[in-house]
Design goal:
This protein is mainly alpha-helical and 194 residues long. The chain contains 5 helices and 5 strands, in the order αβαααβαβββ. It has a single domain, classed as Skp domain (Protein Binding, DinI Protein, Chain A, 2-Layer Sandwich), CATH 3.30.910.20. The strands form 2 sheets. Strands 3-4-5 form a 3-stranded antiparallel beta sheet. A two-stranded parallel sheet has the order 1-2. Helix 2 crosses helix 3 and helix 4 crosses helix 5.
Length: 194
Amino acid sequence: MKRQIRFAALGLLCIFLTGCLNFDDSPKVGVVDVDRILRESRAAQAAVRHIDAVRQRLDAGWNELQKMYAASLPAEREQALAQGLNTLRRQMALEEAAARQVVVNHMQTEVARWRESTKAQMVLPRNGMLDAAPGTDITGTIMDAMNQHDPVFSSLPTVHVEGSSNDTDKTPDVAAPSGKQPRSAVTGPVPAKR
């Protein structure tokens, strides 16, 4: 008898708890097409313009270096220009990575704001997903929020070429992508990425 009362009480408790719990509150999940944002957002387009300006600045340094070594011995000129080309490519890679990171950080800020405002559990990238429910894609919402604020990129690098045909150890200073610390660099042309 006591056992039947315990089972009945346990059953009533389960029914009571089931009524109190709301099983319709499934975790909210958002999906973002990161590639689309990195391609189509105004921040991404601003990054392309910034990189074009960086390329022009570094190409001007390359032209200055070529003029400086035009009258040098062929071996000396070849060495200086090869060093300049390698340094320019490294600098350009740093600048491209820094610009991309600015766009990614801008996107992550807006994703965090959306997640907090909607009390969502998580936001996933669309790239690795096979399928998602139609209402979970928030790419447009994130892009609209990103377009309300302009990202801030580092200042353009300054290129100063030093040296002569007698002094090949001098190299120009090129500002780091952060715009805070200059780096020593010789510049060279950068093939356009299209």
